[in-house]
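Incident log, structure service

09:12 report received: a user says their structure output differs between two submissions of the same chain.
09:20 pulled the input from the user's history:
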Amino acid sequence: MHEGINLLVEPYPRCFCRTNRRPLKVGIYEEVISQRPEMSKPQIKRLLKEYTQSPEYWSTLTAGTPRIDLAGNVAGEVTAADEEDAKRKIAKGAWRVAAEAIEDRSAAGQPPAKPVAERAGQQNAIPERLTPSGPPRVGLAGLKAAAQARRARLVTAE
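09:34 re-ran on a clean worker, output below:
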């Protein structure tokens, strides 16, 4: 992964960094194309996607944070809509990781994770249902028996 990013880090060290990612200027793709004609457009697109399509980059997108151009100069700022989109992408990624973990667990033949209330030593276990005061609830068999008894009373009353 870092070999590709090195193609951006070496010519633009004030813009691209392997460890400390910063929000990039909107339209930086066209700027790289104009300054690096020896690189193909698909290669530039792939490198920028590799750099920007990660939780590390998305976490830098907070409203008001300055965006930078290839020289490292401020070139706009992150909007609230950009921040919301980044949060959505981070959440979607976390959901995807959790779903993959469940699939891996089931593929390995492991039972699914136990509900919170069944975990041993759980501090905040869900309390048992309280039984309501008054007569006990009648199940299906009891309802059928009551209906038959009612029918029998109606037939004898006629």
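09:41 both user submissions now match this output. Likely a transient worker issue. Closing.
09:42 reviewer note: The longest strand covers residues 74-77. The chain has six helices and two strands.
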